[in-house]
Amino acid sequence: MILTLKIMKKIAVLILGWLVPGLGHIVQKKYARGFTFLACILGMTGMGLWMSGRIYPFQTENPLTILAFFADIGNGLLYLVSRFAAIGVGDLKLVTFEFGTAYIAGAGLLNYLVALDAYDIAAGKKK
Question: What is the domain range of residue 84?
């Protein structure tokens, strides 16, 4: 029973860290690290949205859009909100479209690493 609670705690930290950047660290009382990650990743995502970047849904026509989908889903809760609200639709006509899309995808990929870092802390592999 204790083993399963430990595993559940690690997985919960991983999921929280994925849903909201830095939340996995904040839950573990690593406040400076958590809020720094939150500010940086939200800043990157915000700049990407401001530059009219696109958040890609799952599409099978082009293999590159599948990769973009997996990068964008790393943004967690923002990705889920973007599927129901008009966030991240992008405007291909703007010069900043590609840069904005890259910022959003980069933030998602970075959030994967941050969530895994929170998991490593919960697992005791890291301080």
Answer: 2-123
